[in-house]
Specification:
Helices cover 36% and strands 23% of the residues. By secondary structure, the chain is of the alpha+beta class. The chain has three domains: 3-164, 3-Layer(aba) Sandwich (Alpha-D-Glucose-1,6-Bisphosphate, Chain A, domain 3), CATH 3.40.120.10; 169-387, Alpha-D-Glucose-1,6-Bisphosphate, Chain A, domain 3, CATH 3.40.120; 392-486, TATA-Binding Protein (2-Layer Sandwich), CATH 3.30.310.50. The strands form six sheets. Strands 2, 3, 4, 5, 6, 7 and 8 form a seven-stranded mixed sheet that branches. Strand 22 and strand 23 (439-443) form a beta hairpin. The longest helix has 18 residues, at 469-486.
């Protein structure tokens, strides 16, 4: 018999919750029943605004659990008469782009950079990524499930239909048509493939623009590559392989290929917020939205007259971009500390065509902008840092912090007076504090320490900013040590 389910109750009891980007949880908690309920709630929440009869487009990353979850989503949508188009295991931005062009909702099954024992569902509408208001509407839904779930909430196994290639092809064409023909000629790139959904797509785009491309280190097992808190093994890999192979750059992404990794010719990975500033510079952005955790070199460099600082998470960055558009900016972009880059207005490509708006994180635009900015300025990638003031950020996380523990720590520190905070951290006088997202402390020395609970996983994240990389990393370690001592 059909059962009626409250999504708020599902969220509370299953542990599958909205974070900074979509709903995520442990794979064992993401039963077919839970995934079907979220899918129907998403579709119900769009009934008054989506195009009548619009299909639901779905895609996913390369995690072992992704095909099962995709099947549950498809069967849930079909149970209420919705056409489902399976786009394949492709990058998140390719799925979102398809939704924008077809004016249809999409679901991307991905846990991004988190380990394979977790997964998630990322929703977009015909306007782009869902907002926090959209999330609230989804959570307010009650849905009726009529599928044959067993006692553990699973459906009988059923294979997915063959994927259509349209979304992948359009995503590749987006870049081949907008950027100058052979603009990467004479450049040798490596694509660190690991288990990224976009590893083949990256190769196709960069080779199509004239680069000599090597596919490196593809994996049949899922590897949780993080583009923000970069794993030590990924740091070592790039430092080893780039000089040995004489690469101009080694490029990569996270699991669902919406966040970039870009190395210089020495194999040093760029921080995501620095690549965001440089990409903004390449496109002459006149409005930039980014989270409060990102490098203050954005303001100090004068890249854009209009800057909007937001909470961490792409929905907040998108809201900031929309506000900048309303203020009259024409080339409005956004980026995050993880390197994800978005834009809500058309962007003219120097010497080429124009990129249509893509208000979701995308790595290809960053890889291309940084390489072509270096080429246009006659510089190596390592020399692009001379275009910006000497401000370096670093970050790390402690996965042993449950969300409640992180939140309690931040609340305690937020309530402390300035003198007490200065004493606890031992970093000198406190200049200012910012509670936009977590607690961001700026000291009289100009150094910054920022603590916040992760929105995607039970962990504490610590960010720091200083004039040198060594000092920024030392501040992160110090912040984690203080947090462990106080929590």
């Amino acid at each position: 018999m059909p059962s009626r389910i409250s999504i708020q109750e599902i969220s509370r009891t299953s542990g599958v919750k909205f974070g900074t980007s979509g709903a995520r949880g442990l794979v064992v908690d993401m039963t077919d029943r839970v995934c079907a309920a979220y899918t129907l709630a998403f579709l119900q929440s769009l009934e008054n605004e989506s195009r009548p009869g619009a299909p639901l487009a779905i895609g996913g990353d390369l995690r072992p659990s992704t095909p099962r979850i995709l099947s549950a989503i498809a069967r849930a949508a079909q149970s209420v008469g919705r056409e489902v188009r399976y786009l394949g295991l492709i990058p998140s931005p390719a799925v979102a782009l398809y939704g924008l062009e077809e004016r249809c909702p999409t679901v991307m099954v991905t846990g991004s950079h988190i380990p394979a024992d977790r997964n998630g569902m990322k929703f977009t509408t015909e306007r782009g990524e869902i907002t926090k208001a959209d999330e609230a509407r989804i959570l307010a839904q009650q849905v009726e499930l009529s599928l044959p779930f067993d006692e553990s909430g699973q459906l009988p196994e059923a294979p997915l239909v063959e994927p259509i290639s349209t979304a992948r092809e359009r995503y590749v064409r987006r870049y081949l048509e907008a950027f100058p023909k052979n603009c990467l000629a004479g450049i040798k790139l490596g694509v660190y493939g690991h288990s990224a959904a976009g590893r083949e797509v990256l190769h196709e785009i960069y080779a199509g623009l004239g680069a000599e491309v090597e596919r490196l280190f593809d994996s049949t097992e899922f590897i949780p590559v993080d583009t923000e808190a970069i794993r030590p093994e990924d740091v070592a890999l790039a430092l080893d392989v780039v000089p040995k192979r004489g690469l101009f750059s080694l490029v990569s992404t996270d699991g669902d290929s919406d966040r970039p990794l870009t190395s210089d010719e020495h194999g040093r990975w760029f921080r995501g917020d620095i690549s965001g500033i440089l990409t903004s510079l390449y496109f002459s952005a006149d409005g930039v939205s980014c989270p409060v955790s990102c490098n203050s070199a954005l303001e100090l460099s004068g890249v854009s007259d209009r800057v909007r600082r937001t909470r961490i998470g792409s929905p907040f960055v998108i809201e900031g971009m929309q506000n900048l558009l309303a203020e009259g900016a024409k080339r409005v972009v956004g980026y995050e500390a993880n390197g994800g880059f978005l834009h809500v207005s058309p962007l003219p490509v120097p010497g080429g065509g124009e990129l249509a708006p893509l208000p979701t994180r995308d790595p290809v635009i960053v890889h291309l902008a940084m390489i072509l900015l270096a080429r246009a300025r006659g510089k190596k990638l390592s020399e692009l840092s001379t275009l910006l003031p000497p401000r370096v950020t670093a970050s790390d996380r402690d996965p042993s912090f449950a969300t409640a523990r992180s939140t309690a720590l931040i609340e305690r520190l937020t309530l402390a007076c300035s003198e007490e905070l200065a004493g606890l951290l031992g970093l000198g006088g406190l200049k200012s504090r910012d509670t936009t997202d977590g607690l961001r402390l700026t000291f009289e020395s100009g150094e910054i320490v920022h603590l916040r609970p992760s929105g995607n996983a039970p962990e504490l994240r610590v960010y720091a900013e200083a004039e040198t990389e060594a000092r920024a990393q030392a501040l992160v370690r110090h912040g984690l040590e203080v947090a462990r001592r106080l929590a």
